[in-house]
Amino acid sequence: MIPLVLLGASGRMGRAVAEAAAAGGGFELRACVDREIPRGAASPEWNTDLSAVLRGGDVVIEFSSPAAAAAAATICAERGARLVSGTTGLDATQERAMTAAAERTAVLRASNFSVGVLALRRALASALAALPEWDLEIVERHHRLKADSPSGTALTLAQDALAARGWPASALVNGRAGRLGARPDAQIGLHAVRGGSFVGDHTVLFAGPGESLELRHVAQDRAAFAQGALKAARFVADAPPGAYTLEAVLPAGR
Ligand code: NAD
After folding, report:
1. Distance CA 221, CA 57 (A)
2. How far is the CA of 79 from the centre of ligand 1 (A)?
3. How far is the C-alpha of 14 from the C-alpha of 221, rounded, in Å?
4. What is the CATH number of domain 115-219?
Protein backbone atom coordinates (compact mmCIF):
# COMPACT_ATOMS: atom_id res chain seq x y z
CA MET A 1 0.00 0.00 0.00
CA ILE A 2 1.28 3.46 -0.89
CA PRO A 3 0.89 5.89 2.04
CA LEU A 4 -0.83 8.96 0.59
CA VAL A 5 -1.20 12.47 2.00
CA LEU A 6 -3.51 14.88 0.17
CA LEU A 7 -2.79 18.61 0.33
CA GLY A 8 -5.74 20.76 -0.71
CA ALA A 9 -7.95 17.86 0.33
CA SER A 10 -11.10 20.00 0.74
CA GLY A 11 -10.83 21.45 -2.76
CA ARG A 12 -12.35 20.35 -6.05
CA MET A 13 -9.31 18.31 -7.10
CA GLY A 14 -8.49 17.10 -3.58
CA ARG A 15 -11.96 15.56 -3.28
CA ALA A 16 -11.67 13.96 -6.73
CA VAL A 17 -8.30 12.40 -5.83
CA ALA A 18 -9.61 11.10 -2.48
CA GLU A 19 -12.55 9.46 -4.25
CA ALA A 20 -10.34 7.88 -6.93
CA ALA A 21 -7.80 6.64 -4.34
CA ALA A 22 -10.57 5.03 -2.28
CA ALA A 23 -11.98 3.30 -5.36
CA GLY A 24 -8.64 2.39 -6.98
CA GLY A 25 -6.96 0.22 -4.32
CA GLY A 26 -3.25 0.17 -3.59
CA PHE A 27 -3.35 3.42 -1.57
CA GLU A 28 -3.66 4.08 2.13
CA LEU A 29 -5.03 7.61 2.47
CA ARG A 30 -3.06 8.48 5.60
CA ALA A 31 -3.88 12.13 6.01
CA CYS A 32 -5.80 15.02 4.51
CA VAL A 33 -4.42 18.55 4.79
CA ASP A 34 -6.20 21.79 4.01
CA ARG A 35 -6.48 25.24 5.54
CA GLU A 36 -10.25 24.61 5.53
CA ILE A 37 -11.17 21.39 7.35
CA PRO A 38 -14.69 20.26 6.44
CA ARG A 39 -17.13 20.18 9.35
CA GLY A 40 -17.47 16.69 10.80
CA ALA A 41 -14.28 15.41 9.09
CA ALA A 42 -13.09 12.32 10.96
CA SER A 43 -10.99 9.51 9.50
CA PRO A 44 -8.41 9.73 7.96
CA GLU A 45 -6.44 12.26 9.96
CA TRP A 46 -7.15 15.88 9.01
CA ASN A 47 -4.76 18.74 9.71
CA THR A 48 -4.14 22.29 8.59
CA ASP A 49 -0.36 21.77 8.76
CA LEU A 50 1.39 19.39 6.36
CA SER A 51 4.55 19.21 8.48
CA ALA A 52 2.51 17.95 11.46
CA VAL A 53 1.40 14.80 9.61
CA LEU A 54 4.08 14.07 7.01
CA ARG A 55 6.41 11.06 7.41
CA GLY A 56 9.35 9.82 5.34
CA GLY A 57 8.13 7.52 2.54
CA ASP A 58 4.74 9.24 2.19
CA VAL A 59 3.56 10.36 -1.23
CA VAL A 60 1.97 13.81 -1.16
CA ILE A 61 -0.50 14.70 -3.91
CA GLU A 62 -1.16 18.42 -3.92
CA PHE A 63 -3.72 20.53 -5.76
CA SER A 64 -3.77 23.62 -3.55
CA SER A 65 -2.23 27.07 -4.14
CA PRO A 66 1.15 28.21 -5.49
CA ALA A 67 2.41 29.16 -2.02
CA ALA A 68 1.23 25.88 -0.47
CA ALA A 69 2.73 23.87 -3.35
CA ALA A 70 6.16 25.48 -2.97
CA ALA A 71 6.13 25.06 0.83
CA ALA A 72 5.07 21.41 0.42
CA ALA A 73 7.99 20.74 -1.93
CA THR A 74 10.46 22.00 0.68
CA ILE A 75 8.85 19.96 3.47
CA CYS A 76 8.79 16.79 1.31
CA ALA A 77 12.49 17.20 0.53
CA GLU A 78 13.32 17.64 4.22
CA ARG A 79 11.28 14.62 5.34
CA GLY A 80 12.06 12.19 2.50
CA ALA A 81 8.49 12.21 1.17
CA ARG A 82 7.68 12.21 -2.56
CA LEU A 83 5.55 14.84 -4.26
CA VAL A 84 2.98 14.83 -7.07
CA SER A 85 2.16 18.46 -7.77
CA GLY A 86 -0.69 19.79 -9.90
CA THR A 87 -1.01 23.43 -8.82
CA THR A 88 -0.53 25.94 -11.63
CA GLY A 89 0.45 29.63 -11.66
CA LEU A 90 3.65 29.46 -9.56
CA ASP A 91 5.91 32.53 -9.59
CA ALA A 92 9.67 32.38 -10.17
CA THR A 93 10.55 31.97 -6.46
CA GLN A 94 8.00 29.18 -6.06
CA GLU A 95 9.35 27.49 -9.21
CA ARG A 96 12.85 27.61 -7.67
CA ALA A 97 11.57 25.88 -4.51
CA MET A 98 10.20 23.06 -6.71
CA THR A 99 13.50 22.71 -8.58
CA ALA A 100 15.50 22.65 -5.34
CA ALA A 101 13.20 20.00 -3.82
CA ALA A 102 13.62 17.75 -6.88
CA GLU A 103 17.36 17.55 -6.16
CA ARG A 104 16.54 15.78 -2.88
CA THR A 105 13.36 13.80 -3.58
CA ALA A 106 11.13 12.64 -6.46
CA VAL A 107 8.85 15.46 -7.63
CA LEU A 108 6.44 14.87 -10.50
CA ARG A 109 4.64 17.92 -11.86
CA ALA A 110 2.07 18.32 -14.61
CA SER A 111 -0.04 21.32 -15.54
CA ASN A 112 -2.60 18.74 -16.68
CA PHE A 113 -2.77 15.15 -15.42
CA SER A 114 -5.20 13.84 -18.04
CA VAL A 115 -4.02 11.24 -20.53
CA GLY A 116 -6.02 13.10 -23.21
CA VAL A 117 -3.94 16.27 -22.83
CA LEU A 118 -0.76 14.20 -23.07
CA ALA A 119 -2.14 12.85 -26.38
CA LEU A 120 -3.06 16.41 -27.42
CA ARG A 121 0.56 17.51 -26.85
CA ARG A 122 1.80 14.64 -29.02
CA ALA A 123 -0.72 15.50 -31.75
CA LEU A 124 0.34 19.16 -31.47
CA ALA A 125 4.00 18.20 -32.09
CA SER A 126 2.99 16.38 -35.24
CA ALA A 127 0.72 19.22 -36.50
CA LEU A 128 3.48 21.79 -35.81
CA ALA A 129 5.88 19.76 -37.93
CA ALA A 130 3.33 19.43 -40.75
CA LEU A 131 2.15 23.06 -40.74
CA PRO A 132 5.20 25.24 -40.10
CA GLU A 133 3.72 28.34 -41.75
CA TRP A 134 0.20 28.32 -40.26
CA ASP A 135 -0.97 30.79 -37.62
CA LEU A 136 -1.51 29.34 -34.16
CA GLU A 137 -3.99 30.43 -31.49
CA ILE A 138 -4.94 28.73 -28.21
CA VAL A 139 -8.38 29.08 -26.66
CA GLU A 140 -9.11 27.70 -23.19
CA ARG A 141 -12.32 27.62 -21.15
CA HIS A 142 -12.53 27.09 -17.40
CA HIS A 143 -15.02 27.48 -14.57
CA ARG A 144 -15.71 30.89 -13.08
CA LEU A 145 -13.66 30.26 -9.90
CA LYS A 146 -10.33 29.45 -11.57
CA ALA A 147 -7.67 31.76 -10.12
CA ASP A 148 -4.95 31.86 -12.80
CA SER A 149 -5.23 32.90 -16.45
CA PRO A 150 -4.28 31.69 -18.94
CA SER A 151 -4.40 28.13 -17.64
CA GLY A 152 -1.22 26.20 -16.89
CA THR A 153 -2.22 23.77 -19.63
CA ALA A 154 -2.59 26.57 -22.21
CA LEU A 155 0.88 27.82 -21.22
CA THR A 156 2.31 24.29 -21.56
CA LEU A 157 0.78 23.97 -25.05
CA ALA A 158 2.14 27.42 -25.94
CA GLN A 159 5.63 26.50 -24.64
CA ASP A 160 5.56 23.35 -26.78
CA ALA A 161 4.72 25.48 -29.84
CA LEU A 162 7.32 28.18 -29.04
CA ALA A 163 10.03 25.53 -28.66
CA ALA A 164 9.04 23.81 -31.92
CA ARG A 165 9.05 27.08 -33.86
CA GLY A 166 12.11 28.57 -32.14
CA TRP A 167 10.21 31.69 -31.02
CA PRO A 168 10.89 33.71 -27.82
CA ALA A 169 8.39 33.94 -24.95
CA SER A 170 7.53 37.46 -26.16
CA ALA A 171 5.72 35.83 -29.11
CA LEU A 172 2.85 34.98 -26.73
CA VAL A 173 0.02 37.55 -26.47
CA ASN A 174 -2.85 37.34 -24.01
CA GLY A 175 -5.93 38.35 -26.00
CA ARG A 176 -6.09 41.35 -28.31
CA ALA A 177 -7.80 44.71 -28.14
CA GLY A 178 -7.54 47.89 -30.16
CA ARG A 179 -6.49 48.72 -33.67
CA LEU A 180 -3.48 46.43 -33.80
CA GLY A 181 -3.31 45.87 -37.54
CA ALA A 182 -2.25 42.62 -39.13
CA ARG A 183 -1.17 39.76 -36.92
CA PRO A 184 2.62 39.15 -36.95
CA ASP A 185 3.70 35.74 -38.27
CA ALA A 186 5.68 34.87 -35.15
CA GLN A 187 2.84 35.21 -32.64
CA ILE A 188 0.64 32.88 -30.59
CA GLY A 189 -2.59 34.34 -29.20
CA LEU A 190 -3.80 32.94 -25.87
CA HIS A 191 -7.50 33.40 -25.07
CA ALA A 192 -8.87 32.57 -21.62
CA VAL A 193 -12.64 32.18 -21.30
CA ARG A 194 -14.06 32.03 -17.73
CA GLY A 195 -17.59 31.10 -16.72
CA GLY A 196 -19.94 28.51 -15.32
CA SER A 197 -18.51 25.12 -14.46
CA PHE A 198 -16.19 24.18 -17.36
CA VAL A 199 -13.72 21.65 -15.93
CA GLY A 200 -11.07 22.32 -18.59
CA ASP A 201 -11.35 22.82 -22.33
CA HIS A 202 -8.35 23.55 -24.58
CA THR A 203 -8.34 24.14 -28.33
CA VAL A 204 -5.21 24.68 -30.40
CA LEU A 205 -6.27 26.35 -33.63
CA PHE A 206 -4.05 26.23 -36.71
CA ALA A 207 -5.16 28.68 -39.40
CA GLY A 208 -3.73 28.52 -42.91
CA PRO A 209 -4.69 30.00 -46.27
CA GLY A 210 -8.22 28.76 -47.03
CA GLU A 211 -8.25 26.04 -44.36
CA SER A 212 -7.88 25.49 -40.62
CA LEU A 213 -7.35 22.66 -38.16
CA GLU A 214 -8.44 22.44 -34.52
CA LEU A 215 -7.03 20.09 -31.90
CA ARG A 216 -9.32 20.09 -28.88
CA HIS A 217 -9.40 18.36 -25.53
CA VAL A 218 -12.36 18.58 -23.18
CA ALA A 219 -12.17 17.41 -19.58
CA GLN A 220 -15.71 16.69 -18.42
CA ASP A 221 -14.88 15.27 -15.00
CA ARG A 222 -12.02 15.90 -12.55
CA ALA A 223 -11.70 12.11 -12.26
CA ALA A 224 -9.63 12.35 -15.48
CA PHE A 225 -6.98 14.43 -13.65
CA ALA A 226 -7.28 12.33 -10.47
CA GLN A 227 -6.51 9.08 -12.30
CA GLY A 228 -3.38 10.62 -13.82
CA ALA A 229 -2.28 11.95 -10.43
CA LEU A 230 -2.64 8.45 -8.91
CA LYS A 231 -0.57 6.93 -11.72
CA ALA A 232 2.04 9.59 -10.97
CA ALA A 233 1.88 8.71 -7.24
CA ARG A 234 2.58 5.03 -8.04
CA PHE A 235 5.55 6.16 -10.14
CA VAL A 236 7.17 8.49 -7.59
CA ALA A 237 6.66 5.99 -4.75
CA ASP A 238 9.79 4.12 -5.92
CA ALA A 239 11.54 6.79 -7.98
CA PRO A 240 14.94 8.27 -7.12
CA PRO A 241 15.21 12.04 -6.55
CA GLY A 242 14.52 14.07 -9.68
CA ALA A 243 12.07 16.29 -11.53
CA TYR A 244 9.59 14.16 -13.48
CA THR A 245 6.71 14.79 -15.86
CA LEU A 246 3.81 12.61 -17.01
CA GLU A 247 5.99 11.50 -19.94
CA ALA A 248 7.91 9.35 -17.43
CA VAL A 249 4.68 7.64 -16.32
CA LEU A 250 2.99 7.25 -19.70
CA PRO A 251 5.74 7.07 -22.33
CA ALA A 252 4.64 7.50 -25.96
CA GLY A 253 3.61 4.27 -27.66
CA ARG A 254 2.44 2.51 -24.50
P1 NAD B 1 -9.80 24.59 -5.09
O2 NAD B 1 -9.78 26.03 -4.73
O3 NAD B 1 -11.11 23.89 -5.23
O4 NAD B 1 -8.94 23.76 -4.01
C5 NAD B 1 -7.73 24.21 -3.46
C6 NAD B 1 -7.70 23.75 -2.00
O7 NAD B 1 -6.41 24.05 -1.48
C8 NAD B 1 -8.73 24.49 -1.14
O9 NAD B 1 -9.48 23.57 -0.37
C10 NAD B 1 -7.87 25.41 -0.26
O11 NAD B 1 -8.44 25.61 1.03
C12 NAD B 1 -6.57 24.60 -0.20
N13 NAD B 1 -5.43 25.46 0.10
C14 NAD B 1 -5.03 26.57 -0.55
N15 NAD B 1 -3.96 27.10 0.04
C16 NAD B 1 -3.64 26.29 1.09
C17 NAD B 1 -2.62 26.32 2.08
N18 NAD B 1 -1.70 27.28 2.12
N19 NAD B 1 -2.61 25.31 2.99
C20 NAD B 1 -3.54 24.33 2.97
N21 NAD B 1 -4.54 24.26 2.05
C22 NAD B 1 -4.58 25.25 1.12
O23 NAD B 1 -8.94 24.46 -6.42
P24 NAD B 1 -8.85 23.24 -7.45
O25 NAD B 1 -9.82 23.46 -8.56
O26 NAD B 1 -8.84 21.94 -6.72
O27 NAD B 1 -7.40 23.54 -8.08
C28 NAD B 1 -6.25 23.63 -7.27
C29 NAD B 1 -5.03 23.87 -8.15
O30 NAD B 1 -4.84 22.75 -9.03
C31 NAD B 1 -5.13 25.09 -9.07
O32 NAD B 1 -3.84 25.66 -9.20
C33 NAD B 1 -5.56 24.51 -10.41
O34 NAD B 1 -5.17 25.29 -11.51
C35 NAD B 1 -4.81 23.22 -10.39
N36 NAD B 1 -5.38 22.15 -11.24
C37 NAD B 1 -4.47 21.36 -11.87
C38 NAD B 1 -4.90 20.29 -12.61
C39 NAD B 1 -3.86 19.39 -13.25
O40 NAD B 1 -4.22 18.41 -13.90
N41 NAD B 1 -2.57 19.68 -13.04
C42 NAD B 1 -6.26 20.01 -12.73
C43 NAD B 1 -7.17 20.83 -12.07
C44 NAD B 1 -6.72 21.91 -11.30
Report:
1. 30
2. 22
3. 13
4. 3.30.360.10
Protein residues whose CB sits closer than 6 Å to any atom of ligand 1: 8, 10-14, 33-36, 63-65, 67-68, 86-89, 110-113, 148, 152, 225
Same fold, 2-109+222-249 and 115-219: no
Q: pLDDT tens digits for 139-148?
A: 999 999 999 9
CATH topology of domain 2-109+222-249: Rossmann fold (3.40.50)
Flag residues of the chain having pLDDT under 70.
253-254
Q: In angstroms, what is the span from residue 233 Cα to ligand 1's centroid?
A: 17
Q: Among 121, 153, 154, which residue's Cα sits nearest to residue 137?
A: 154
Sorted by where each begins, the domain ranges of the chain are 2-109+222-249, 115-219
What positions carry a catalytic annotation? 142, 146
For ligand 1, atom 25, the nearest C-alpha belongs to 12
pTM for the model stands at 0.94
> Side chain identity at 17, as an amino acid letter?
V
